[in-house]
Amino acid sequence: MNKKEKMTDQVLKNEETEQEDTNTSSPKFENRRRHVRVFYPTRCPAKFMPEMILNHHNCLVLDISEGGIRFAISNSILVKKGPVKALLRFPDGGAIEITGEVVRRTYNQVALKLEKGIPYSRIMSEQLRLRNLEAHGVISLPSNSKG
Hints:
Structural class: alpha+beta
Order of helices and strands: HEEEEEEEH
CATH class: Mainly Beta
Oligomer: single chain
Strand content: 25-35%
CATH architecture: Beta Barrel
Distance between the termini: 34 Å
Number of helices: 2
């Protein structure tokens, strides 16, 4: 098993735990998010996923919103406190330079609050693109991204 596969397996374990913790079918669940969030399937061919480049490392994008991004990295220690700059490249060739502040960090995941958000139009186009891929049987979306 190569390094990327190991990281993906660890991310999947973390994702399953997080999805159980934020089960939207629970009557006690209250969505306190300010922005619409797009969740990316962790077991998806790379050609369908956005790519985030941070300090010369390619990171697995887990979810995006207008105000933030969460991504996997082999070791979150590689992301220092303070302003973080990265390039977010989408499968359609579009790219956005992002700058944000680390708000949460686990062993292999980092969440950034963005200074300048990802445009709402990009969030919606990503959501539509993923739903079309799912409708054609190309990918399977995580349960927390289905409305």
